[in-house]
């Protein structure tokens, strides 16, 4: 069980920071930093729901994800210039949206659409899980404000959620992979859990490899401990608000 | 442990058929039928690899997925008319490609790109897992033919893979959900395994719900038994070829 | 008057098969096979007509055409991936739509849009004429079902239509060109007729050549005899239904 | 055989004018006016051929067609704003290109691509046939200039071509339909012929109707006489040049 | 203060011509020729305003700009084929729209959208300023006709506007640059003024250079004298109409 | 000469801050804050120049501009989702690119393309001028680093540039408009100058109004004083680097 390339233990998260309302135009926003990874997560509310939901009395939450071109060591071409979102972007924003929807009661929300924007300022691995974790904090702040404004019921929030990546690197299960580790990982798994310790999403991928049942068990344990820590830090970030 | 709406046991697959070379223009093709779900999986070979792989001596495999507009009870708008592939399509074809790449040795393939097309003629649930399972059979037939033609080495294939969906419906873990069950499922999980019993992909989603660790264990067991059966049937379909 | 490369007489069709409801999600579908050419033709009904027809009491019929990437010997890039339908596709689906609209009374149809999907599973020449011929059969089945369901009047169908290609190959007028002949043809003509022996469409093209009046006469005669046979076979395919 | 709404005989063309080099930036251009229909047809030469022709020693000709938004009584939305060319546009420019290619010897042209632009300034019916007729004149001027500049062989031109629409209006076969007649026509046919009296293209359409063999014969006769006149007028327009 | 390459004085415009209603389908159109530059400017009226203005009792004016591919010495690719308008096009049409909106009272216009199309038939420098100048003439004709038809108030027009380019070429300030001068200019400035001598837009650009305050003063003087002349010529073109 | 809504004098800038390398993946980056407006300006270097410059020994600089959806009080739809950049975006990034190109010697740069990304995190007016000012600082840092790495000559930088908006609000000329003032301004002018006091760009617009010569003189004076201050602050931000 050796140290990792940045001296972390296998079960150690990178340094994590939440800055509530780093930008102040949206209903609520949260800048999450996980090591060098920086993501601004913002929540807006729209009184119109998507066409297929109109008149049904239920709300919706949708998420969008993007990286600044300068977020990566080698500049990433801008999707607005290419004229469409790439496959990776689409996959990530669908994951973020699904995960967050599991944490609120859409019927209690009423006919309102919440739009969550996750914009990556700097990418050093784990941007999708940082997005989910940061967005859950921003979402909770947004719901408090909507409730204070009398726009939603007080019991719309079901749970808080957190997400982390785990993987097998050099044969060892590790928590919270940075870009360097992610590039070398045999197995890469993103886990989303709520504060009741239940799974919301598990996405395990073995690009060019496979993984066994015992490895799966190890990875899920690591993920659970990491998410518990992230959820505590998120709670603290919201202290001032409550 | 009651019967399901179509009289299947919880651990029972739908009827499965493989028809090799239903269409004959591609290098190899396989029509897979799982209940009413019908998918044509075809494999083509291209001597040019994507730009970022050129001159590196390694090959690539890419997958595309589509549904005929008439494949669903309510007609699905054609993506070529809308001008882009939807998020669900992109997510599925990325999954198919990643899974199949784990079953071959890309360096042994040499500078060649295999293109796998999964076109759904009729959709009744489980189209992405049927695509993976059928495409693995077509891929194996294609590799045999490429080897006979002297275009690839004999050890390019690493494993055969199969995929199945499992889920929690009315609180019960069930195997191979059809469209009716899929719409009502609390949890939906797609599992891809190889013939060594190792995981290639696990994608578990709880849209509007969550799932516990013991439920996860039950679902993975069901999936494993289903995939073993699918792999046997796939082997039989290839008997004439070998 | 020598034999053709596949031993057919100049005035001989390839083997033709109609399979009604090969897929069963649409209102009606027909798999037509003309030699190796295979097309699934499906008909769906939508209670909304296009915006420019709303409130006018008249219906509409629109057609879409596509080829599976694996339908051709050399894989054809997927239009949904390229982001738009090609010129050939657009031209063909406009022809199919126009032809079928001539066979029904749009005012009697009432405010309903029929959508015809022609998806080519395998292409060996004559896909546009096979699409029209197969779609006319599926359309007639669909109209019978709509009438039984009380959704349309019984006199909506005006005629049945059929289509075939004719051309000049090696100086000889031939019926129903396959891909091999089509590539070598000096003149290529698609003819659509109804069961009263009247023309619906004539599209004669001499890519890199021209044709004389007497050649035109010969080609039109061949086409008429071919279409009569196709219309008889189509009638038989619908026997079970009536 | 009564007069038409604009007092023309059934077999009478509208007034036709050719203005060579109305614009002077292209290699050659021709403004053709047929009644109120006005089209600028221009020819440019590019030393690069399309990728699929490179190194084969043969040339190519491609055509593009467009209407100014202000060309029609009701403004037509601009295709560049909508982000794609419509189906009608694609169909027309493919027809123009095919027709013109039949009038030159692509192998003698050598590795050069001729681009023909047909831009409709005002549309009053018959824009596609006016485009072909005007473009053939511009093409002939361009070939003379290319030959003088020593860039092509003197025998590249095979024939001159002309095109006209004919149709059945109120049961009567008429030549050169204007917009008013075109909207009311039961049958609409575009015919392209060369100066040897041979057919290059025949496109007969019966939107919502059909036509008999004897009607076909009448229409083809009308078309031939009209095209002969157009070809003579085109020759005169080129007199100054030769 | 030497002569320019085409023998003009530094403060001399090229020859200017206005042809009212060169095309006659739109509400009003004006062909403006400035030297070899030719632009058709047309005005259409639509009773619907853009969504964000509906129900507010105010009107709107929007402009679109395009060049025929054959307008330039080297053929310009067609934007409808490329699938989008280029940056230069977008910038120009926004400038035209803004400028023209300053010349009318949008509230007096009422709920109506005026669409101005500027289509460049031939480009020899100054197409954006010719478009503004020609469009102002067409707009005034259109307003007269709308007023006669009782569709707008008589005081909707605020002013007439004109535009011209000025620049520094070989160190000398010159008026109305043609393409040859434009390519060589150190500084290029487009000025839009109204008939009260007030500025509507100033856009000065020094691609690869800079300009001083005294140069700015010289350029603005030249522009003002040029625009006065253009406004007089525009008034004359409208004489017949008033 | 009264106070403004935020208590500033007419000739007073908002508080300005430059943070060099707020993100650290690009060659250089600068976060500029002007009041609540926040823009990350990053510079990347690419050894390939655009196709039209290849082999000419000269370099290029291109700029891209975007706003986070959450940057504005009312959420702005994401351009990558809409599938294209809007007209305003295109206009702004062309202005940024042109302005910055005037500050470097492209021939001395050699065959290298500099890409400048200006991403607006929060928008409260003046985002295009903040982008230019911040990007000039990032560009200077990038050039110092490229020179140290031996990739460019030491004399590539010609000047530093700064930009500011000025306008007429309630009849009074004011410097550095925030969003509130910008919405109410009769005239809006963006001025770009270099550290020799010469103009690089002047873009004056009177949406729904006009402006006189004396107003122009006042605005240009205000702009000059504001830019001098911005250039001093930019120099200080770079002190640590030199």
UniProtKB/TrEMBL annotation, chains A, B, C, D, E, F:
Coiled coil: none
NCBIfam families the record matches: RNasePH (TIGR01966)
The Exoribonuclease phosphorolytic domain, residue ranges: 12-142, 161-225
Positions of phosphate binding: 88, 126-128
Catalytic activity: tRNA(n+1) + phosphate = tRNA(n) + a ribonucleoside 5'-diphosphate
An MF annotation (GO) of this entry: tRNA nucleotidyltransferase activity
Subunit and interaction comment: Homohexameric ring arranged as a trimer of dimers.
EC number per UniProt: 2.7.7.56
Stated name of the protein: Ribonuclease PH
Organism of derivation: Ferrimicrobium acidiphilum
Keywords on record: Nucleotidyltransferase, RNA-binding, rRNA processing, Transferase, tRNA processing, tRNA-binding
């Amino acid at each position: 069980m050796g140290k990792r390339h940045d001296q972390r233990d296998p079960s150690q998260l990178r340094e994590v920071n939440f800055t509530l309302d780093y930008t102040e135009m949206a209903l609520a926003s949260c800048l999450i930093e996980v090591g060098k990874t920086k993501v601004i997560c913002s929540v807006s509310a729209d009184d119109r729901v998507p066409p297929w939901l109109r008149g049904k009395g239920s709300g919706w939450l949708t998420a969008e994800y993007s990286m600044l071109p300068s977020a990566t060591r080698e500049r990433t071409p801008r999707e607005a210039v290419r004229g469409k979102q790439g496959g990776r972007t689409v996959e990530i924003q669908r994951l973020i949206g699904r995960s967050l929807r599991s944490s609120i009661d859409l019927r209690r929300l009423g006919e309102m659409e919440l739009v969550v924007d996750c914009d990556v300022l700097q990418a050093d691995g784990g941007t999708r899980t940082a997005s989910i974790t940061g967005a859950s904090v921003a979402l909770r702040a947004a719901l408090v404000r909507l409730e204070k404004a009398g726009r939603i019921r007080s019991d719309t929030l079901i749970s808080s959620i957190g997400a982390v990546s785990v993987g097998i690197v050099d044969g060892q299960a590790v928590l919270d992979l940075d870009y360097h580790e992610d590039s070398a990982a045999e197995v890469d798994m993103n886990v989303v859990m709520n504060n009741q310790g239940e799974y919301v999403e598990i996405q395990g991928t073995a690009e060019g490899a496979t993984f066994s049942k015992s490895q799966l068990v190890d990875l899920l344990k690591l993920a659970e401990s990491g998410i518990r820590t992230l959820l505590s830090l998120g709670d603290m970030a919201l202290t001032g608000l409550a």
